[in-house]
Amino acid sequence: MDGKYWNRKIETMPRQDIKNYQLQKLKEQVNYCYEKSNFYRKKFDAINLKPKDIQTIEDLQKIPFTVKSDLKDNYPLGMVTASPSEIVEVHASSGTTGNPIIGAYTQNDIEIWQELMARSIYTTGGRPQDVIHIAYGYGLFTGGFGFHYGAQKIGAKIVPASSGMTQRQIKLMKDLEVTMLACTPSFAVYLSEAMTQEGVDPKKDLKLKRGMFGAEPWSSKIRERIEQEMGIETFDIYGLTELCGPGVSIECEEHTGLHVWEDHFIVETIDPDTGEVLAEGKEGELVFTALTKTGIPMLRYRTRDISKIDINPCRCGRTHARMTHITGRTDDMLIIRGVNVFPSQIEYAVMDFSELSAQYLIVVDRPGALDTFTVKVEMTEKAAQNSQLDRKTLKSDIQKRIHIITGISADVEIVQYGELPRTEGKAKRVLDLRKGKM
Ligand code: ADP
Ligand code: ZN
């Protein structure tokens, strides 16, 4: 700990030093993979690639991608490279898109994860005197434990709330004078709503100052709502089970993107269709190489997450590259009547209307030859009581907004407040009823 940095030397390292350090670690990691991992040796041998062929950072591009199906095909522990006795902990992805993906950690992996989470929480202002309420699920999901390990290393007071029992969580946040909240953005929205119902004003009744939200995309509009309703500063945090869990990148106090911890990860962006590596600053799919992971090493892992990278210096003094907020994942993308639509675009459109609650559901179906596309939204309790409000105009305004943003027209259905499902973890925003009808 040194002023605002958890590790000043590493966080503010000149870029050339980061590059040199990365190259050294990359060579070590490639050797480790080639010697110890059947999976990677096969991949290398298939194209006659040898560890000695990796002499520069650019040589990384010679290595084939690792993809989600590699992990699924090798379920559960086929890609473990350390010896079985070295694995000390196992987690699994939340399975948003099919079978779970297993993360198997050596003691080394756990220590690095703990360090990166401590660094990340510290970057958002978390200090030993903070009371951190962790409402990410504890268990196989990496969210709860990831924050727990990091907060513990900082020496903050931890409230390991996990998910569930929302009313009790609100009571604890108040009684224990919680100062920082960690959960999914959709749970933060739900919490804020539940606080209003419980008669708790987070701005007056709580000591809450900051929130660290991630594990799913959240639009700037949702963010504004959370910040306004709770009166807090929010930080986006990113990660995935395949790399460690949360702690791969974190937003700093400048809020101009998320610093990727480049002493442990090399990040590239590629064209998701062709796999071509894109120039820095171009939007594409993020690909990560973990430089220090020993349980299940990851070379050039295709995340399916869409973002872009900025290597310019940040005003905070940190030199590690920044990624923009994830706008969506390629496997979340809907193709409706031939047009690509991301749920985050719908979120962006509907959050413009203060008459609407922050809940929405996209329903896509194909009863005949054509796709139907319905967006269900809820009015806030206050708006529902307003007899002056013209629902017809509201509906058509929402339709127009969705059309401007996505280029296609949607049916908008305004449902009763409270009718749409609330979630404690990652939200499910899409109901695609076309499956099996294609
Ligand atoms: P899954 O959601 O695939 O079951 P994980 O639980 O490991 O798997 O979650 C990792 C995924 O969550 C990432 O690949 C990304 O799609 C999403 N994610 C994580 N953090 C963020 C964030 N801050 N913003 C947007 N998406 C995120
Ligand atoms: Zn910064």
Explain the overall architecture.
There is one protein chain. This protein is of the alpha/beta class and 438 residues long. The protein has 13 helices and 21 strands. The chain has helices at residues 8-11, 15-36, 38-46, 68-73, 107-123, 142-154, 166-175, 185-198, 202-205, 220-230, 343-350, 381-385, 391-406; strands at residues 87-92, 102-106, 131-134, 157-159, 180-183, 210-214, 233-240, 245-251, 258-260, 265-270, 284-290, 301-307, 309-310, 322-323, 328-329, 334-336, 339-341, 356-365, 372-379, 411-415, 430-432. The strands form 5 sheets. A 9-stranded mixed beta sheet has the order 4-3-5-6-7-8-9-14-13. The chain has a 4-stranded antiparallel beta sheet with strand order 10-11-12-15. It has a 4-stranded mixed beta sheet with strand order 20-19-18-21. Helix 2 crosses helix 3. The protein is globular. The N and C termini lie far apart (56 Å). The model has no long low-confidence stretch (mean pLDDT 96). Bound molecules: adenosine-5'-diphosphate and zinc ion (ZN).
